[in-house]
Amino acid sequence: MRKAIYPGSFDPPTLGHVDIINRCLPFVDELYIGIGANSLKSHPTFSAQERVDLLNRIFKTNSTPLVVQNLENSQNQRLRVDPIEAASYPRDRSDADSVKDQDGDTGKNQVLNHERYKIKVVTFSGLLVDFVKKHSIDTIIRSFRTSADINFEMAQASLNRQMTGIETFWINALPQYRDLSSTLIKEIGQSGKSLDHFIPSEILKEVEDRLTIEGAHR
């Protein structure tokens, strides 16, 4: 079984994140969405637990709740967040193609009657390579938007491979998401403008409300 992790800060989750997740799911059996504790981002808009909740709201279906491992407090502590559910996505390339629109873009929240995929939203601190080794994950999923991203990601992938032998798969961001970043979204949201072109509808109101409050206190 191929297990992969898509790490990031997800503060907040965006349509760009959802697109990468949807596009990688046909190639893995189990996907961890890993929320890393980034010391360079000491004042997040959403707490780690809030980001877990937001991501599970985006991908939830009427399936069995999963258990999220919370590594911020203790390596052995397990925290149940209700509801945490697996999403259903196309298993092979022909199925994946069937959910694309006329412009060739994968639908952001297509839930199809195909074999189940398991999505686990987790938080972790420390090195990503330590987490993947502990959980027998064999693939890291990363995306890039610019040439600067490519240079950084290639260097990081090389180090990860040297330390653990784990491979990194890159997914190129679609054109409409290449300029999308958390910093840009926060600037737009704090100005009171709509984020409906950038944020999944399942969490849109909560993200807009939080950023509007932040903007009022700047």
Q: Work out the radius of gyration.
A: 17 Å
- Please write the string of helix (H) and strand (E) elements: EHEHEEHEHEHEHH
Strand order of the largest sheet: 5-2-1-6-7
Unreliable segments (pLDDT under 50, ≥5 consecutive)? 61-115
The biggest beta sheet, please?
5 strands, parallel
Q: Return the structural class.
A: alpha/beta
Question: Share of helix among residues?
Answer: 25-40%
Task: Summarize the model shown.
The chain has 218 residues and is of the alpha/beta class. Helices cover 34% and strands 17% of the residues.
Structure write-up:
The structure is a single chain. The longest helix is centred in the last third of the chain and has 18 residues, at 147-164. With 218 residues, this protein is of the alpha/beta class. Helix 5 (147-164) links the parallel strand 6 (139-144) and strand 7 (167-172). The strands form two sheets. It has a five-stranded parallel β-sheet with strand order 5-2-1-6-7, sandwiched between helices. It has seven helices and seven strands; from the N terminus they run βαβαββαβαβαβαα. Helix 6 packs across helix 7 (204-216).
